[in-house]
Amino acid sequence: MDFALTDEQRMLEETLTRLVADQVSPEQRRTMLAATPNGASALWRTFAELGLLHMPFGEDVGGLGGDGTDLMIIMQALGRGLVPEAYLAGLVLPGQLLALTANSDQQTQWLTPLLEGEHQLALAWQEHNARYDALAIATQATQQDGQWQLSGRKDVVLNLEAAAANLVTARLDNGKLGLFIVPANAPGTSSHFYCTIDDQPAGDLTLDSVTLPPANCLSDDVGDALAEVLALGRAALCAQAIGAMEEACDQTLAYLKERKQFGLPLSTFQALQHRMVDMHLHLEQSRSMAILAATSLILPASERDYKIAAAKAYCGESARFIAEQAIQLHGGMGMSEECYVASYAKHLVMFDHHLGDSDYHFETVSELLKVA
Amino acid sequence: MNLTFSPEEQAFRAEVRHFLADALPSDISERVRLGRHLRADDHLRWQNLLSEQGWLASNWPKQHGGPGWGPVQRHIFDEECAAAHAPTVVPFGVNMVAPVIMKFGSAEQKEHYLPRILSNQDWWCQGYSEPGAGSDLAGLNTRAVRDGDHYIVNGQKTWTTLGQHANMLFCLVRTDPEAKKQAGISFLLIDMQTPGITVRPIITLDGAHEVNEVFLDNVRVPVENRVGEEGQGWTCAKFLLTHERTGIAGLGHAKQALRHLKSLASRIEHRGKPLLELPSFRHRVVKAELELMALEVTNLRVIAAARDGGVPGAESSLLKVRGSELRQELSELTRRALGPAALPFFPDFLHGEGSLDDERAQSAAASAQYFNRRKLSIYGGANEIQKSIVAKTILNM
């Protein structure tokens, strides 16, 4: 049992904290958000120089072999600064799926440049009628004359606009779930770009008889690999939410100490003190769950999924609680777009809508609940 | 980071489990399992067995006769004890007054009292709360006036747990009414046989005689029974409140209660199916399961920090708040699970007299325990006080 970070991990944490403080102020973040996402920002190049793009990948695919804790440190720092880079959606999730499924030619073509920061990718796994179910996929892939044909629509694909290609799940004739890599400009694709309410670039991807050569099929049975990658993504999201919760709590606490009403700082009112402590309690319990998630990635699938579902369900609820209280304790200020805590509140509420919300994961825990 | 116990720690767990299976008398564990009240003799028999094993004073260093365990071992020990339905060691001697004596006591006090605690010769109780001093403990009014080599103590203590069995009382008294309220307090060790002490039972809403009022009427206490300097009592009390509270979440008890609840709810039928399949009930069980998972890791974080030399301070308050809320919720769900069977009340059976048919016996304590567990968020500093401590010490509000 050990909760201490290694020296390397502490250095990673310090480096990232400094980087985020230097380069992602509220003003800098606004500027970054206003730019068209292309996967090649100055900050992304810095990530590449610092080895962050290699960190979460195994040494067998040219990565640095970072573990769940390393990923947690990175995501937490990104969450603290609400860093508008698609580290998870554009790098980690598609990259891990490639690492698990791609043959060496496919890795050379797609994974190596991803780790070098030469392009970003996206993972198109969600569909309109499937809610959070990664297996209830209506997009079809059929084989004709040795070529694949894909038709269907993928919803809310994060990082769609910046991605050089999308990893697309599709139902095969034999009923299994296949995985394909679809270049951004492939004939038959069309995209509708937008931002999520918490400022993340996303879009819907329509595939209308998109023809792909056999080399673009990454897997003809991706279910287990996809489950593993989504589990990793959920653990990473929990860590990111912890960073955002920390910052939302800090900003709220600072505001309570500085804002005066009835001639006294708000922080002297007991009702508000106890509310602030409740936020802190939610944060610390969620931090424990995020640690549980990060250290569960190496467990057998059923145990891993149980613990990560528990963590995601728990953090989802806490994130919403902290977001709502952060707005409430900021009073009218919390309602204004300009107030920075509002951005955190939006992120913390919408975090629950990524990779399955509390209800979804609660159900998983309920199904897997051990009675004896 | 990793959350697994080392091979040595796992071997230690096996050793504790083995000892409990061997040594814990089955009549005692059965009483604990059924939630019946323990007799003084039950506590003593068990504590004597622990004492022989060298495990009674689980938080004492070796030099004073403790096993020299670290926080991780203590955690494992507590967990296994709760799982085996062992009685909780009465904490007032071993866990409360002893650390104060070790830290602030004279050589004579250490030499006299510590061995007697270790051998269960003395049964200690706590004289802190008063009718007018609950959450505001420093507002206590029990007066100790110096008279030669003695203090003359007058006042009233309350909520004195198991004081009916105790022969020794550690007591906060006001020695200087002029000083600032914390500064005028001293810490006295009082023999319960001293003339002028009266103990009266307080029966709690679950029908139990767990707590008492203690009246002190011109009680003569030798000055050598003061721990620390005059006026240093608050320092002793505060030390006690922050000392080794890694067990404060009651995690072992919560785990045991959740296991029991899940097994109960899968045996009890609701419309032809196990109650655990009723969505609204299952939802609350799963929520408790999640809270327990989070609490367990938080507890381990605090334990690991203590192991690595940190002093758990206000983090204990977080553990206390969430741990007590969880245990209360589990007692609520256990009571609910029983449905109409939670209604019958058999105080005699709970006191340890007579018997009931097996079905009634299994459910007899649930409602009483639910009411009893309300204390968890009140004693040891009410949860609202804990929140104010966190606000002050962690958040600097």
Automatic annotation (TrEMBL), chain A:
<dbReference type="InterPro" id="IPR013786">
    <property type="entry name" value="AcylCoA_DH/ox_N"/>
</dbReference>
<keyword id="KW-0274">FAD</keyword>
<comment type="similarity">
    <text>Belongs to the acyl-CoA dehydrogenase family.</text>
</comment>
<keyword id="KW-0285">Flavoprotein</keyword>
<dbReference type="InterPro" id="IPR036250">
    <property type="entry name" value="AcylCo_DH-like_C"/>
</dbReference>
<dbReference type="Pfam" id="PF02771">
    <property type="entry name" value="Acyl-CoA_dh_N"/>
</dbReference>
<dbReference type="InterPro" id="IPR037069">
    <property type="entry name" value="AcylCoA_DH/ox_N_sf"/>
</dbReference>
<dbReference type="InterPro" id="IPR009100">
    <property type="entry name" value="AcylCoA_DH/oxidase_NM_dom_sf"/>
</dbReference>
<feature type="domain" description="Acyl-CoA dehydrogenase/oxidase N-terminal">
    <location>
        <begin position="6"/>
        <end position="118"/>
    </location>
</feature>
<dbReference type="InterPro" id="IPR046373">
    <property type="entry name" value="Acyl-CoA_Oxase/DH_mid-dom_sf"/>
</dbReference>
<dbReference type="GO" id="GO:0050660">
    <property type="term" value="F:flavin adenine dinucleotide binding"/>
</dbReference>
<dbReference type="Pfam" id="PF00441">
    <property type="entry name" value="Acyl-CoA_dh_1"/>
</dbReference>
<dbReference type="GO" id="GO:0003995">
    <property type="term" value="F:acyl-CoA dehydrogenase activity"/>
</dbReference>
<feature type="domain" description="Acyl-CoA dehydrogenase/oxidase C-terminal">
    <location>
        <begin position="227"/>
        <end position="366"/>
    </location>
</feature>
<keyword id="KW-0560">Oxidoreductase</keyword>
<protein>
    <submittedName>
        <fullName>Acyl-CoA dehydrogenase family protein</fullName>
    </submittedName>
</protein>
<dbReference type="InterPro" id="IPR009075">
    <property type="entry name" value="AcylCo_DH/oxidase_C"/>
</dbReference>
UniProtKB/TrEMBL annotation, chain B:
<protein>
    <submittedName>
        <fullName>Acyl-CoA dehydrogenase family protein</fullName>
    </submittedName>
</protein>
<dbReference type="InterPro" id="IPR052161">
    <property type="entry name" value="Mycobact_Acyl-CoA_DH"/>
</dbReference>
<dbReference type="InterPro" id="IPR036250">
    <property type="entry name" value="AcylCo_DH-like_C"/>
</dbReference>
<dbReference type="InterPro" id="IPR009100">
    <property type="entry name" value="AcylCoA_DH/oxidase_NM_dom_sf"/>
</dbReference>
<dbReference type="GO" id="GO:0050660">
    <property type="term" value="F:flavin adenine dinucleotide binding"/>
</dbReference>
<dbReference type="GO" id="GO:0016627">
    <property type="term" value="F:oxidoreductase activity, acting on the CH-CH group of donors"/>
</dbReference>
<dbReference type="InterPro" id="IPR006091">
    <property type="entry name" value="Acyl-CoA_Oxase/DH_mid-dom"/>
</dbReference>
<dbReference type="InterPro" id="IPR037069">
    <property type="entry name" value="AcylCoA_DH/ox_N_sf"/>
</dbReference>
<comment type="similarity">
    <text>Belongs to the acyl-CoA dehydrogenase family.</text>
</comment>
<feature type="domain" description="Acyl-CoA dehydrogenase/oxidase C-terminal">
    <location>
        <begin position="231"/>
        <end position="394"/>
    </location>
</feature>
<dbReference type="Pfam" id="PF02771">
    <property type="entry name" value="Acyl-CoA_dh_N"/>
</dbReference>
<keyword id="KW-0285">Flavoprotein</keyword>
<dbReference type="InterPro" id="IPR013786">
    <property type="entry name" value="AcylCoA_DH/ox_N"/>
</dbReference>
<keyword id="KW-0560">Oxidoreductase</keyword>
<feature type="domain" description="Acyl-CoA oxidase/dehydrogenase middle">
    <location>
        <begin position="125"/>
        <end position="219"/>
    </location>
</feature>
<dbReference type="InterPro" id="IPR046373">
    <property type="entry name" value="Acyl-CoA_Oxase/DH_mid-dom_sf"/>
</dbReference>
<dbReference type="GO" id="GO:0005886">
    <property type="term" value="C:plasma membrane"/>
</dbReference>
<feature type="domain" description="Acyl-CoA dehydrogenase/oxidase N-terminal">
    <location>
        <begin position="6"/>
        <end position="120"/>
    </location>
</feature>
<keyword id="KW-0274">FAD</keyword>
<dbReference type="InterPro" id="IPR009075">
    <property type="entry name" value="AcylCo_DH/oxidase_C"/>
</dbReference>
<dbReference type="Pfam" id="PF02770">
    <property type="entry name" value="Acyl-CoA_dh_M"/>
</dbReference>
<dbReference type="Pfam" id="PF00441">
    <property type="entry name" value="Acyl-CoA_dh_1"/>
</dbReference>
